[in-house]
Amino acid sequence: MMELQPKTPTIQGAAEMFIGNVYFDVLAKGDDMRVNIVRFTPGARTAWHSHARGQTLHVTEGVGRIQARGGEVIEIRPGDTIYTPPGEWHWHGASPDDFMAHLAMWEGGASVIDEPESTWGEQVTDGEYNAL
Ligand code: MN
After folding, report:
1. If you measure from the C-alpha of residue 90 to the centroid of ligand 1, how many angstroms do you get, rounded to a whole number?
2. Quick one: DSSP state of residue 15?
3. What Å distances lie between residue 8 and 24, 27, 28, 60, 81, CA to CA?
4. Fewer CB near the last or first residue (10 Å), C or N of the chain?
Protein backbone atom coordinates (compact mmCIF):
# COMPACT_ATOMS: atom_id res chain seq x y z
CA MET A 1 0.00 0.00 0.00
CA MET A 2 1.22 3.53 -0.73
CA GLU A 3 3.12 5.06 2.14
CA LEU A 4 4.38 8.58 2.66
CA GLN A 5 7.65 7.84 4.37
CA PRO A 6 8.99 9.95 7.22
CA LYS A 7 11.85 12.26 6.34
CA THR A 8 15.17 10.89 7.58
CA PRO A 9 17.65 13.27 9.20
CA THR A 10 20.26 14.84 6.93
CA ILE A 11 23.67 13.35 7.74
CA GLN A 12 27.00 15.10 7.29
CA GLY A 13 29.59 13.06 5.43
CA ALA A 14 32.50 11.84 7.55
CA ALA A 15 35.82 13.66 7.24
CA GLU A 16 37.62 10.40 6.39
CA MET A 17 35.55 10.06 3.23
CA PHE A 18 35.06 13.66 2.07
CA ILE A 19 36.88 16.96 1.71
CA GLY A 20 34.63 19.94 2.43
CA ASN A 21 31.02 19.81 3.52
CA VAL A 22 28.86 17.04 2.12
CA TYR A 23 25.37 16.15 3.31
CA PHE A 24 23.25 13.18 2.41
CA ASP A 25 19.70 12.03 2.93
CA VAL A 26 18.85 8.35 2.73
CA LEU A 27 15.87 8.01 0.37
CA ALA A 28 15.79 4.22 0.14
CA LYS A 29 17.69 1.55 2.01
CA GLY A 30 16.26 -1.76 0.92
CA ASP A 31 17.73 -5.23 1.27
CA ASP A 32 19.73 -4.66 -1.89
CA MET A 33 18.97 -1.16 -3.19
CA ARG A 34 20.42 2.06 -1.83
CA VAL A 35 19.34 5.55 -2.93
CA ASN A 36 20.75 8.70 -1.38
CA ILE A 37 20.59 12.32 -2.38
CA VAL A 38 24.00 13.86 -1.78
CA ARG A 39 24.65 17.60 -1.60
CA PHE A 40 28.17 19.01 -1.96
CA THR A 41 29.15 22.58 -1.10
CA PRO A 42 31.53 24.33 -3.56
CA GLY A 43 34.88 22.53 -3.68
CA ALA A 44 33.64 19.54 -1.66
CA ARG A 45 34.30 16.06 -3.01
CA THR A 46 34.46 12.43 -2.05
CA ALA A 47 37.71 10.61 -1.41
CA TRP A 48 38.74 8.00 -3.98
CA HIS A 49 36.46 5.00 -3.60
CA SER A 50 34.84 2.08 -5.40
CA HIS A 51 31.52 0.24 -5.17
CA ALA A 52 31.30 -3.55 -5.10
CA ARG A 53 28.27 -3.64 -7.44
CA GLY A 54 28.84 -0.34 -9.26
CA GLN A 55 26.96 2.93 -8.84
CA THR A 56 24.68 5.19 -10.86
CA LEU A 57 24.71 8.93 -10.19
CA HIS A 58 22.12 11.39 -11.52
CA VAL A 59 22.90 15.09 -11.17
CA THR A 60 19.91 17.14 -10.02
CA GLU A 61 21.42 20.55 -9.31
CA GLY A 62 24.53 22.69 -9.73
CA VAL A 63 27.84 21.91 -11.41
CA GLY A 64 30.14 19.07 -10.45
CA ARG A 65 33.19 17.06 -11.36
CA ILE A 66 33.85 13.34 -11.58
CA GLN A 67 36.86 11.23 -12.46
CA ALA A 68 37.59 7.53 -12.83
CA ARG A 69 41.10 6.35 -11.92
CA GLY A 70 43.31 6.91 -14.96
CA GLY A 71 40.66 9.01 -16.76
CA GLU A 72 40.01 12.69 -17.32
CA VAL A 73 38.19 14.94 -14.87
CA ILE A 74 34.73 15.51 -16.40
CA GLU A 75 32.29 18.34 -15.66
CA ILE A 76 28.79 17.12 -14.79
CA ARG A 77 25.52 19.06 -14.86
CA PRO A 78 21.83 18.56 -14.03
CA GLY A 79 20.32 15.76 -16.10
CA ASP A 80 23.62 13.91 -16.48
CA THR A 81 23.63 10.24 -15.46
CA ILE A 82 26.95 8.55 -14.79
CA TYR A 83 27.45 4.81 -14.29
CA THR A 84 30.59 3.53 -12.59
CA PRO A 85 31.16 -0.22 -12.97
CA PRO A 86 31.86 -2.56 -10.05
CA GLY A 87 35.27 -2.07 -8.47
CA GLU A 88 36.27 1.00 -10.52
CA TRP A 89 37.97 3.64 -8.37
CA HIS A 90 36.57 7.16 -8.79
CA TRP A 91 35.57 10.35 -7.02
CA HIS A 92 32.76 12.89 -7.44
CA GLY A 93 32.09 16.36 -6.10
CA ALA A 94 31.03 19.95 -6.66
CA SER A 95 32.86 22.42 -8.85
CA PRO A 96 34.91 25.08 -7.03
CA ASP A 97 32.24 27.75 -7.57
CA ASP A 98 28.95 25.88 -7.37
CA PHE A 99 26.96 23.56 -5.21
CA MET A 100 26.21 20.16 -6.72
CA ALA A 101 23.54 17.63 -5.81
CA HIS A 102 23.16 14.12 -7.20
CA LEU A 103 21.14 11.03 -6.58
CA ALA A 104 23.37 8.05 -5.81
CA MET A 105 22.02 4.56 -6.48
CA TRP A 106 23.89 1.35 -5.73
CA GLU A 107 23.42 -2.18 -4.55
CA GLY A 108 24.27 -3.23 -1.05
CA GLY A 109 22.96 -5.26 1.82
CA ALA A 110 21.91 -8.78 0.93
CA SER A 111 23.41 -8.58 -2.56
CA VAL A 112 26.91 -7.81 -1.26
CA ILE A 113 27.85 -10.33 1.39
CA ASP A 114 31.46 -11.09 0.50
CA GLU A 115 32.92 -7.55 0.51
CA PRO A 116 32.02 -4.00 1.61
CA GLU A 117 29.40 -2.14 -0.43
CA SER A 118 31.94 0.65 -0.90
CA THR A 119 35.70 0.72 -0.36
CA TRP A 120 37.31 4.02 0.58
CA GLY A 121 40.87 5.19 -0.10
CA GLU A 122 42.92 8.35 -0.07
CA GLN A 123 41.58 11.90 -0.35
CA VAL A 124 41.51 13.64 -3.73
CA THR A 125 44.35 16.16 -3.84
CA ASP A 126 43.87 19.74 -5.03
CA GLY A 127 46.06 18.83 -8.02
CA GLU A 128 43.77 15.97 -9.02
CA TYR A 129 40.63 18.03 -8.36
CA ASN A 130 41.82 20.99 -10.40
CA ALA A 131 43.00 18.98 -13.42
CA LEU A 132 39.85 19.81 -15.39
MN1 MN B 1 30.84 6.72 -5.99
Report:
1. 6
2. T
3. 10, 8, 10, 19, 25
4. N
- pLDDT tens digits, 73-121: 999 999 999 999 999 999 999 999 999 999 999 987 666 677 788 999 9
Q: Which of 44, 45, 66, 42 is nearest to 55 (CA)?
A: 66
CA of 86 to the centre of ligand 1 (A): 10
CATH class of 11-114: mainly beta
Q: Which amino acid, one-letter code, is at 121?
A: G
Contact assessment for residue 60 and residue 37, using Cβ atoms and an 8 Å cutoff? yes
- State in Å: Cα 22 to ligand 1 middle: 13
